[in-house]
Structures are given as structure tokens and as C-alpha cells.
Amino acid sequence: MSDVPPWIDDRIDRNLDNTLTQEHVVERMLESERPFFSLRQLHARVKPDVSKATVRNRLQELQAIDVVAAESYPDSLTLYYVNHPESKWPLSPEGKRAIHTDSPLDRLSTRDFITLSDTAGVRTLVLAGLQLSLVLFAFGGLLTVIGADPNTRSDIALWDSALELVFVSLLLLLAERVARWLRNRYGPFDFLPAS
């Protein structure tokens, strides 16, 4: 029995005279974690005695029956993907749900952070730190302009920074909660034009 979904199984050609079948190409695409494949990557996944031209022919046949779609990019790069009818994006519906529900910080464990092995999670933390630094610079500029300086000085500069970061983070969290409460109660505010 084939491992391909019924909507693909109904469309593919069962020509067993071909060295490489449409079904074999689709199975290799579906069993992989990747959403996109170049011709070279697919060629490496199928039988080693099949030429790139044969793989390209099967991909063109699968494109003709709307099982596979392709995106072409500069430098003569074409990426192929299974054209799932439930998704306008070249991911399976399961992959699309995983992207929307699983952020890099949800997956980041203490071990992955310490060993720096989950690069997406670490990059997300770095971006958050950069954004908080920008907020701290703006807040510090505002305090300088109005002439107020909260006295949170200690002998260790990192402790000062940590205390200020905690204070600003809590202030941002409070502001976000108040803004959400106001939006829920009074509707969205249109202070800025929509992009």
C-alpha cells in the first residue's frame, strides 16, 4: 500500500516501465522534513542509478498534474514542493500548524541555550535583548531630557543594568496589559496609519 495521501494517489501515473516512478519521487518528498527541494537534493534522495534528467522529467510530470509546484529564483535555482491543496504555502497542513503554534522560545530548553545548539531560540533571545536595549536607550534619553535620574547605583555595573532591565521589562508588561484591556473594552485605537 502506498504512503501517499489519497489526493495524490488518485492523480499519479502507475507506469512501472519507468526507472523512476512518480510515486517514488512523491514518497521521498513526503517522508522528508524539508518543505522545499532542489533538483540536486531530490536526485540524492532517489535511486542512485537514475539521472538528474529522469528526476527532472518526473517532476515536470508531477507539475502537470498539480501534485508538485515549483518556485524559480535567480542564479537558475528552482525549488520544488508538494502542492498541498489545503495550504497556499508549500508546507503540509501539519507543518503550517507547527509553525504557527511552536515559536523558537517554546522549543528552547536550558540545555540548548547553554550549549547554543538551538540557534533559532538563541537568535530570538538576542533580538529580544536588542529590542529591550533600544527601549532602555529611549527611556534613558527621555529621563535625561526631563532631568530625572532614578538612583539605582551599585558598585557593579552589570547589576545596575540588570535592575534597570527588570524594571523596564515589568513596565512594558504592564503597558501591554493595559493596552490589551483598553482594546478589549473600547476597540482598537487608530493612532498610526495602517501599513
Description:
The protein is mainly α and 195 residues long. It has two domains: 96 residues, Winged helix-like DNA-binding domain superfamily/Winged helix DNA-binding domain (Arc Repressor Mutant, subunit A); 83 residues, no CATH class. The chain contains nine helices and two strands, in the order H-H-H-H-E-E-H-H-H-H-H. The chain has a two-stranded antiparallel sheet with strand order 1-2. Strand 1 and strand 2 form a beta hairpin. Helix 8 crosses helix 9. The longest helix is centred in the last third of the chain and has 30 residues. The two termini are 50 Å apart. The mean pLDDT is 75.
Concise summary:
The protein has 195 residues and is mostly helical. It contains 9 helices and 2 strands; from the N terminus they run ααααββααααα. It has a two-stranded antiparallel ribbon with strand order 1-2.
CATH class of the largest domain: Mainly Alpha
CATH architecture of the largest domain: Orthogonal Bundle
Number of E strands: 2
- Tally of individual helices: 9
Our count of domains comes out at: 2
Q: Find the CATH superfamily of the largest domain.
A: Winged helix-like DNA-binding domain superfamily/Winged helix DNA-binding domain
- Measured between the Cα atoms of the first and last residue, the distance is 50 Å
What's the pLDDT, averaged over the residues? Answer: 75
Please state the overall shape, judged from the principal axes of the Cα atoms: elongated
The sequence of SSEs as H and E is HHHHEEHHHHH
CATH fold description of the largest domain: Arc Repressor Mutant, subunit A
- Overall helicity: 55-70%
Indicate the structural class: mainly alpha
Radius of gyration over all CA atoms, rounded: 26 Å
Uncertain segments are none
The percent range for strand residues is: 5-15%
Largest sheet: number of strands, sense, barrel closure: 2 strands, antiparallel
Q: What topology, given as strand order, has the largest sheet?
A: 1-2
